[in-house]
Amino acid sequence: MSLIKLYGMPMATCTMRVLLCLEEVGAKYELVPISMPTGEHKSPAHLARNPFGQIPALEDGDLTLFESRAIARYVLRKFKGQGPDLLKEGNLSESAMVDVWLDVEAHQYNPAISPIVYQSLILPRMYGGTPDQSIIDTNLEKLKKVLDVYEARLSKSKYLAGDFFSLADLSHFSYTKYFMATPYASVFDSYPHVKAWWEDFTSRPAFKKVAAGMGGHQ
Ligand code: GS8
């Protein structure tokens, strides 16, 4: 059997989503570094893996995949029965709820939190730029509205899709971890159920291991 190759950067948010899944199921894999600062993600070799010139991409034998959430599902399906059941595919309504909250993460949470992390951490630290406070403020307001919904949801169930930890929760890890290193981390203090959810699931061993690869943001 060929060794899975994950192309990306251990500190990049979407790469981390896949790394967490690989670690949760105890898969053997090789992380092949792709350097974004040198533009390697736009090289012909990488464009052949991901035509959008983004990381991550995964190769498993003849199969090449991109889009981190799709890759995450592939990894969890491939190693089903190894490690926790994070997709609940044996149960129609539970798996539907995993899909709902994974889409909420992709289409509500991520668009609000990612510009805040980019402006306040990535832009100044990686590119030497100056944060645009108006972008941060607009997205903090968006994020608070999303967190209102999360607070209501998490006051009824322990995790997002139900009383079980799933890919929907896992998928929030990387951006939230970085957000907690911004000056705006205290926003979460107004959402006690969200804060407890975050503290609960980030104590998982796979998360500690992947967080150790995040550079100065642990
Ligand atoms: C997004 C990938 C992405 O934005 C996914 O895989 O989930 N929806 C895709 N990757 C960033 C790195 S941060 O994780 C990237 O490659 N950016 C460079 C670019 O867009 O040119």
Automatic annotation (TrEMBL):
EC nos: 2.5.1.18
Pfam families on file: GST_C (PF00043), GST_N (PF02798)
Taxonomic lineage from the root: Eukaryota, Viridiplantae, Streptophyta, Embryophyta, Tracheophyta
The family assignment reads: Belongs to the GST superfamily. Phi family.
Q: Which organism is it from?
A: Rhynchospora tenuis
Any idea what this protein is called?
glutathione transferase
Catalyses: RX + glutathione = an S-substituted glutathione + a halide anion + H(+)
| PROSITE patterns documented for this protein | GST_CTER (PS50405), GST_NTER (PS50404)
According to its UniProt entry, one GO biological process term is: response to herbicide
Name a GO molecular-function annotation: glutathione binding
Taking every annotated instance into account, which residue ranges of this chain make up the domain GST N-terminal? 2-83
In terms of InterPro entries, this protein maps to: Glutathione-S-Trfase_C-like (IPR010987), Glutathione-S-Trfase_C_sf (IPR036282), Glutathione_S-Trfase (IPR040079), Glutathione_S-Trfase_N (IPR004045), GST_C (IPR004046), GST_Phi_C (IPR034347), Thioredoxin-like_sf (IPR036249)
What Gene3D superfamilies does this protein map onto? 1.20.1050.10, Glutaredoxin
Q: List each copy of the GST C-terminal domain by range.
A: 91-218
The record's keywords, sorted A to Z, are: Transferase
Q: Name one GO cellular component term.
A: cytoplasm
Instruction: Give the main EC class.
Output: transferase
Q: Which domain of life is it from?
A: Eukaryota
